[in-house]
Amino acid sequence: MGYFAKADLEVVRGDDFTITQVWSLSGAAVNISSWVFAFEANEISTRAATPGNITVANSAMVKSASSSVVDTLSIPLSDTDTDVTEGRYKYDIKATVGSDEVTVFRGTLTVLPSEQD
User: Disulfide engineering: 84 pairs with which of 7, 52, 62, 79, CB 3.0-4.6 Å?
Assistant: First the structure.
């Protein structure tokens, strides 16, 4: 099974940012309460010796109900998470459902410069 969706995102370097996704299939809420998620973003091109990387573990994510079932996932990126080299990062969100791991989202996360730096 391939990824479900693609979304390109922008965040200002050093800002708090939350990615929120509500899950549904044919208009019906999908219960994600037993799913385990992982977020990772890796810098696309860099001159740095160590490319930028952002990870968020399942334990830092929040699952909630927008309807009668748990169908909403929030992935918080803290100011520390986004305080990385400005530029483009390829990201994906993986879900483990039972014994299957699938990529459910992917895209580009652009970290923009802060005008406060």
Answer: 52
pLDDT for 93 equals 94
Contacts 24+ apart (CB under 8 A), 44-52: 44/87, 44/88, 44/89, 44/90, 44/108, 45/87, 45/88, 46/85, 46/87, 48/85, 52/84, 52/85, 52/87, 52/89, 52/111
Question: Topology of domain 5-112, per CATH?
Answer: Immunoglobulin-like (2.60.40)
Confidence of residue 1 (pLDDT cuts 50, 70, 90): very low
Query: 22 and 71 in contact (C-beta within 8 Å)?
Result: yes
Element (H, E) at 25: strand 24-25
Interval 54-106: pLDDT, tens: 999 999 999 998 778 889 999 999 999 999 988 999 999 999 999 999 999 99
3-state secondary structure 60-72: HCEEEECCCCEEE
Residue type, 15: D
The domain ranges of the chain are: 5-112
